[in-house]
Structures are given as structure tokens and as C-alpha cells.
Design goal:
single chain, about 775 residues, alpha+beta, 7-stranded mixed β-sheet
Amino acid sequence: MISQRLVGRAVPRVEDDRFLRGRGRYLDDIELPGLLHAAIVRSSVAHGIVRGLDRGGGAGGAGSVALVLGPEEVRARAAGLVPVVWVVPGQRDVGHPLVGDRVRYVGEPVGVVVASSRYYAEDALDRLYLETDELPAVVSPEEALAPDAPLLYPDWGTNVAVEPESGDGADHTDAVFAGAGGVLRARMHMGRLAGSPMEPRGILAVPDAGTGKLTVWISTQAPHAVRDAMAAVLGLPQHLIRVIGPDVGGGFGVKDHIYEDELMVCLAALELGRPVKWVEDRRESLTVTAQARGHVQDVEVAYHPDGTLLALRTYGVRDAGANLSIFGAGPHVSLAANLPGPYRWRAVRATGPVVVTNKVPSGAYRGFGQPQAAMIRERAIDMVADQLGLDPVELRRRNMLGPDDLPFTTRTSLTYENGDYPANLARAAELMEAGPPPPADGRSRGVGFSSYVELTGVGPTSTNKVLGVRVGTYETATVRMATDSSVSVITGSSPHGQGHETSFAQLAADRLGVPLERISLIHSDTDVTPYSPYGTAASRSITVGGGALVLAAEELADKIRRIAAQLLEAAPEDVVLAEGRAVVAGTTAGVSLTEVAEQAWRGYDLPDGMTPGLVATRVLDPENLSFSYGTHACQVAVDRATGMVEVERFVVVHDCGTVVNPLIVEGQVHGGVAQGLGAVLLEEVVFSDDGQPLTATFLDYLLPTSSTMPDVQTEHSEHPSPHIPGGMKGMGEGGTIAAPAAILNAIARALPDAAARITDIPMTPSRLWELLQDTAGA
């Protein structure tokens, strides 16, 4: 029997006290004796052959410079390739050198300078010159596909890294299209984005000459994956590398792996035998940290005149940048897998290449292909509604999977579990209709919708094969009760703003009957936490990590009840754990958990066959992914004279299974909506024709602020996942997935004369103004 007291309650985050008081400990807060500082030698051209590093006195500077490693030295010291984890059949880039014989984007790291301070390191950097024979740059994916395009990897003979296919075969899809009464065709473009976490990347590498061990503090989402990659590149056994994640100020996917510049800092520390720290500045964060999106997508929808959606076919080109980063073709594959959304289709087919260009490599960013899939599908559905003269909500309703259809396997082989998609759509429409009438201020207004199914809880090895992942992504949790009945939860999941210390403690507290303040979370240290091959990403922390914790806590609770039952002369099933005590249900008879814990650890008079101690460890590799879902709806006001768009109202109705902490869930949803709003109205990484980054500061790369965000009205429906212990479904990316399409659809509703041309993001004021002028002149 479990005393449910905390799960479902909006408990204030226990970790926030130290953050609000300025007592967090981030990477750059760590100072050690003998600490040196690094600056990174980077390419100033987008494409070229590296001839060498002209030091030009760069090792001088009044004796302040301790080390300069140029391209030749880095190559000589690297023992292996930088790995690519997400490898699909036919993929050409499966790993690349730490430093190659050519550079392929502006800012590519080729060396490292170490000095007594960051100032001296940067000063020395200014006296270095990377000798490069510049080559023609390829910036757009269309250029990269041209027959005469310069090749980034001449031995490939092409700029196509891989060209995966997903969903139904060509013959079946063609047949469905041939029998359709109507076909919508559109081209959509999604701009490149920068993750822009509040805390940029950083690393502190500390070698120990006595043990040969390298301890690394790093701002990361995935300590174990970072350690594995370090071992491969540095040539050290894993037991001689300890990776620790301190407090991390945001990640959003861009900190879900190791970077070449971070590995060079480790090489420098090993060379010098001293601690070396590097923290990227904001310019580096915007111009060299992995970026995302940048898709060009041709979409076709076959439909029947009665509004039945028949088939969805896309051809997309993904701009991977200079290499496939550690996640390879993953966002492209995820886009294709998630195309069907919450609808019935007779055919879904996705094709198109992943191409390399002379830009920053792109990789993981909140949503990982799912925002692209939602925008393509949801914008196209609205355009079909326009062609048929139907209300877009009604068109969605007619084609949406209902509760009785679930579980349901999509045309792209994902199996949705449970839920009520139409109910969330109807509720979102109801909330939008209940809003106040807009003011008569001369602006054009429209309401847009976007429905989605969010792939979360990436975990099952069998399902990962559908997505092209070649590693299992299970999670492990250990729960340990000390002799004073305080509890330690040890997890491989690694938080960077999600509130693990609160929500994980809530899960444990309800099952063990221990007050929240007596539970601590141990995480982000490869020497003491269980192995996590995937880290905190893909909305999997509370599902796979939390699910493993639920299993371990329940196992430990069973042991506690057995010991208490023997002390109380009762049956274990009659013992309830609550408020720090084990009590016989329906009576006042009980013992403190401290008394039970002391008995267990002393190993005295335990039930027959029971081992001493109170520790339980469980691994969760769930039988299926979990799938959250929902509908976003928003109202926008458009000033035709300026192209300015204001999002006035925003509604989210979603289902993420068991809601552990509504406060944290809503914070995650609102943050996701903010990133989605930024993607559709403000943010875009821009390069010149020769590959120079043009958005290197926040004066050029615009982020949402409190003045651009509406209040977000959020409602929960709860259909617990049947295969995740505790019933949780992930929800960290839902806000980002659905918001862009909802806002873009609302803009199109506000501007019916230009709706057919509103297919690209970001829809900035200047871009929208120009579109309106072209429409008026047509």
C-alpha cells in the first residue's frame, strides 16, 4: 500500500533556494590552485586547406603563455576519432578526426592556447595566424546539391552524407495519390537556430599525476556519453576519466555531447599536468556551438473532397553543416518518423538527403526533428482546409485518431499508447472561443491551431532500431536509505533546469513515506552514478529515469515493510509507510523508519533470507516509447503597415500521463512555447555567401523576452502510460514542437489574402511586410 501525498502537487522546487540566493555552483565558479586558462585557435575562413600555424611570438607574452598546440600537435596527440552515435544505413560520416587537414566552417577549432589567465590566452591568440589555402565555400544546401558544387569531402564524390527513406514505399504512396480527389503542394523553409543557453559551454580538466586520472568538470547534459567520447579520443581507459556536471545553466540539446574544442582543453591539461579551464564567450556560443533546424521541405497532401486526409509525402533537404556532429542524421530521421502526428493516413513517405555545407555543424536542439514534422504537417492541413473551404479544427477532428483507435501503429512504425486526442483539440478550441473580444485597433487577427504527438521517453532498444539509434537508452536508479532513514536517490539522469531534485524526490517520498526534505539526489558524476548512455534529452528523464526510480523505490519499500511487519507482528501487506513511520493500516501501531533502517543495516533479526542494508537498484528498458500529445491554439494580431506580429493569447491542452509536479510541468511547457515563438517570429542564424556568420551577437540574433511572450493558459489531461512505472510521459519538448505551426497558422488566418504564401519561418516583420507588399502588387 502506498500513501500518495506528493505526486500531483505543485511543490516549489527545492533546488531554487540556492539558485535564487546566488549559491549555485556553475562551471566557471570552480577555482583550483595552479589553474590555467585556455583560448581556442579557430579558422577564420569557411573552407580551406590547413598549412600550419604561424606562431608569430604567440608563445611569448612576458612568460604568461604555458602552451600552444597547433593543428599538427593536436593531430599527433589524439588517439581516435570524434564519434557519431546516431548512424543510419549508408551514412558516410561515422566519425571524424579531432583536427583534419582542412577546415570546413568559420570558427572550427584547430588548436588551443593556454596561459595564466584568459586575458593572456586571448592576447596570445591574437598573435597567432592559421595558414590556410582558402577554397570555395558551399553555404546553402541547394548549392551543395549542384553537380558542380565544391566538395567538402572529395573522397565522397558528393556532398550528400546520407539519403534515408521512411514510411511507405514509393509504389504504395503513388497509388494513394493517384486515387485522390485533390493534392496540396507547398514548399516550406525552417531557419537555422542557435540553442543559446543562459550559461555557455565550459570545461575544466584536472589531471592527477599520482593516479593518472583525469577529472573533468563540464557543463553538460550527458556526463557518461562525454566520458565515453573522451576515452575514445584521448586514448585513456574509462576508469581513468571522471566527468562531473556541476549546476548547468540550460542545455536544450546543444550540451548533449562533447565538442572538439573541449577535447583540446583536455589534451592541453594532460600535456601540462595542470588544471586548465575554458568557458566559451557569447560570440562563440552563437557561432560555433551546434545549431539546428535549417530544413527545406517540399510537402504534398492527398485528400478526398469530403475532407478525408489520405497521404502525406515529403522531400526534405537537411543542412547538416560541416559534419554530422555526434547525432548524425538523427533530426532528419526523427522528422520523418514523427510526420503522421495524431491522424489516420493511408500512406506516409519521407525522402531527401542530409547534405554537408560550410557552416557550423547542426545537431540536437529541443524537439530534435519533431518541430519540423509538426510545422510541415499542421501548416499543410490548414492549407488543405483552405482549399476545401473547411474549418481547420473540423478537418483535424474528422481525421484524428480517437481513444478507441489506440494503441495505434503509424505508417512510420511508431506505436502510440493511449489517450484522447480529439478531446484535447475540442478543449483548446473551447478555451480560445471563451476569450475576451479583441479591441478594434485596426490590426488583423487570426486564430491558429496545431495538434501533435510527442515522442518521449526514448528508451527501448527495439524501438530505437526504428529511429536508427544503435545504442540502448535504458536508465538505472539506486535508492538507499541510511540508518537515520534519510534517503539518497542515485540516478544517471543529469539535470540542467528540469527540477530533478524536486520531482525525483516526490516520486521517492510517496513510495517510502519519507518527508521530501530528507531525500537527496546524487547525479552527474560518472564515478558514483549508474551508467546512462543517452543523458538527459528527448524528454526521457521523468519517464525512463523516473520510471527506474519508481521500480527501485517500490522494491526498497517492500523490504522496509517486511522488516517493519516482523517488528510489529503484522502482515507486510498491511504496513503503510507515511510521515517517516511504518504503521499497521487501521491502527496506531507503528515504528519509525529510523528504527527499521537501523535494524536493516545492523543486520540483526531480519526476516529469513533477507540481506542486510536498505539499497535497491533497478534498470528500466521500457517495452515501448511513451507519447505525450496535445493541441496548441493562439490568437495573433498583425499590423499590416509594419509586419509586426503580436501573440495575444496562447492555450496549451496536453496529456503527459501522470503529472508529478504541475508547477514544473507548466514551467517546461511555457519555456518550450517561448522557444517556439522565437523560432517562428524572431530567431535565425544567417551566413554570408562565403560562409561568414552574420548573427554573432544578441543585437543580430533576437530572442523572445517577457514583452514578446503572452500569458500561456495550460490545462492537463491525464492518461498514465501503461508501460512506464508511475505512468509518466515526457513533456519537455511539447511546447517547442507545436508552437511554431500554431502561430504560423494564426498569421495565415489573419491574412487570408496572403495565406498561401505563409509557409516559412522565421516570419520576421520585414519578411512579412515584404510578402504583404508583393501580395498587394500581384
